[in-house]
Amino acid sequence: MGLWLGHAIASMALLPIWLMFPIAAAWLWLGRQFRWGAATPPAQRHWPWSLFPIALWGLYIYLADSFGEVDLGALFFHLQAGMQGHGGVDRSLAAIGYTLSMVALLASFTWLTHHDGRWQRIEHFLALVLLASNPLLYGVSQRGAAIVIDDGAWFDRQYVEPVVLEAPSSPPNLLILYLESIERTYADRERFGDVYADLEAIGEEALVFEGVKQIDNTGWTMAGMIASQCGTPLMPAGLLHDSQLEPLEQVVPGADCLGDILSSHGYRLSYLGGASTDFAGKGVFYEDHGFDRILGRQQLQPRLEDPDYVNNWGLYDDSLYDFTVEEIRRLDDEADGPWGVVALSISGHAPNGYPAQRCRERQGEFDGRDILYSVECSAWLTRQLLERLDGEGLLDNTLVVVTSDHLTMRVSAWEDLIETERENTFMLLGPYVPAERRERDASMMDVFPTVLEAMGFTIDWHRAGLGVSLLSDEPTLVEEHGLETLNERMRGETALQERLWDGLAPKGAEKAPDPSPEQVVETPEDMADDPAPDMQ
After folding, report:
1. N or C: which end of the chain has fewer CB within 10 A?
2. Where is the composition biased (Acidic residues) (predicted)?
3. Is the peptide bond before 351 cis (omega within 30 degrees of 0)?
């Protein structure tokens, strides 16, 4: 019990882990002073009420220790979308260790309440305190309260269907490089040295956006990709999913995303990622939204010269980028209309990253823990890829998007990262894109319309989904309302969730058609606080 208490305090307060031992020693001293377990036993023994609250706190501490910030949306989505192909072997082993130690904790607490009447008398109150203070239950209760108070359609009223008014006469190709967890915060040389230097070098010839924040439900890979390609946070399907015990067969079927628009304009689209496309519904998402070729670990590992050169998740980024070059060559040689390629890296994946062999040869030995080593590797490989493609003329008439998928989760540099406000990487390179820096309060949802306009598409109101083109003067939702308001509104949102998962409602639960199809802009309450743009 003392070791668990020490570990919990050290994890929650971001203290050095060795402090758990002095805390445990203090607990043992208290136990000796008050003779815990040696007092008068209770008249009747029963199972403690606190067992479930203690186990729930153990789950929260495991999640916080693994990811830094516990995201219930991510937890629910991954449970429904499928965990096949999960590469977090280290965390799986840690989960086993946590489970075994939790069993020991629960057994110890049960023994204490059975042998000390004082503990049995207070443990009912302790159970209430543990339940009330657990952030997991606090988050659920917040959402429940918000749903009761709010009308549940604030975000849905802000949503604008992406409408292309005019397509470019000479449509450019598109290359999107998602750099796993490589946030722009790493550009601070005082805290992180030169680990971001290669991306800064790319940025000297790019349009760099500063101030791209992270709102709720966009903080993991699938959520970040959907936010930046569909202009909406990824709200889990929840009870809208028809078969609760089966993985999702569709991912956000109710949204028109970047792939849908580009495929309708003749683009040939490919996705490449080193991890399994089964994990978290990645393959399903890209297949449902206009992509022709979806290449993940299953398809690419057999093509490696050394099939054993993989990590827990899948291919290293040097191998992935070799295949990316091959895929772009193939698409370019076909000369059958414009192409689009999306590639998702793995080097910066929390908690330690997966630096490729080429990086180890360049940077020296990797200690297996330092995330800054992996960040530097990711940045360098990205720059090498772009220089290689440019040298072969494969980036002619091509818009390149370099972006993080989301802010990183808990890593070795965590305390330094959370010192200041954090932001995502987002930059554009192309023949018609100016090389400059622009600061905007934005989110990953604004990437979607920005990319469309940077490609030369004219879109209605400079908007797509909940995003606003950062190439326009239109205010973003973050600029209009602020992150705190957006996150608060999201807790009570149900209409946008139903829009995203349209068609997945359980049978017999469909709503009657609305006799008035006219869209309501804002409720009087909304307009009093947050006036909506005129075009909505």
Report:
1. C
2. 523-536
3. yes
At a CB cut-off of 8 Å and minimum separation 6, what does 528 contact? none
Which SS3 state, helix, strand or coil, does residue 412 take? coil
Q: Work out the end-to-end distance of the chain between its first and last CA atoms, rounded to an integer number of angstroms.
A: 57
* 3-state helix/strand/coil string of 361-378: HHHCCCCCCCHHHHHHHH
Measured CA to CA, the distance from residue 42 to residue 114 in angstroms comes to 7
Distance CA 220, CA 375 (A): 17
**Amino acid in the structure at residue 237:** A
User: Mean pLDDT for each consecutive 10-residue tract of the chain (536 residues)?
Assistant: 88 78 93 86 84 87 67 60 56 76 91 89 89 74 54 93 96 97 98 98 98 95 97 78 59 96 98 92 94 97 96 96 98 92 96 96 96 98 98 96 95 93 97 94 98 97 98 97 94 91 58 44 45 41
Pairing verdict, β 467-468 and 463-464: antiparallel
Is 312:88 a contact under the CB 8 Å cutoff? yes
Which domains does the chain carry? Answer: 35-149 (no CATH), 154-234+251-505 (3.40.720.10)
Say how far apart CA 505 and CA 510 lie, in whole Å: 6
- The amino acid occupying position 150 is D
The rounded distance, in Å, linking the Cα atoms of 89 and 102 is 20
Are 269 and 108 in contact by the 8 Å Cβ rule? The answer is: no
Rounded Cα distance between 315 and 342, Å, is 16
Q: Are 504 and 250 in contact (CB under 8 A)?
A: yes
* Size of the chain, expressed as the number of residues it contains: 536
Answer for the pair 283, 248: CB distance below 8 angstroms, yes or no: no
Report CA Rg, the chain. 25
Full DSSP string of 213-231:
E--TT-SSHHHHHHHHHHS
DSSP secondary-structure letter at 239? G
404: its two tokens = 């993080």
Helices (H), 86-153: 89-115, 117-133, 135-149
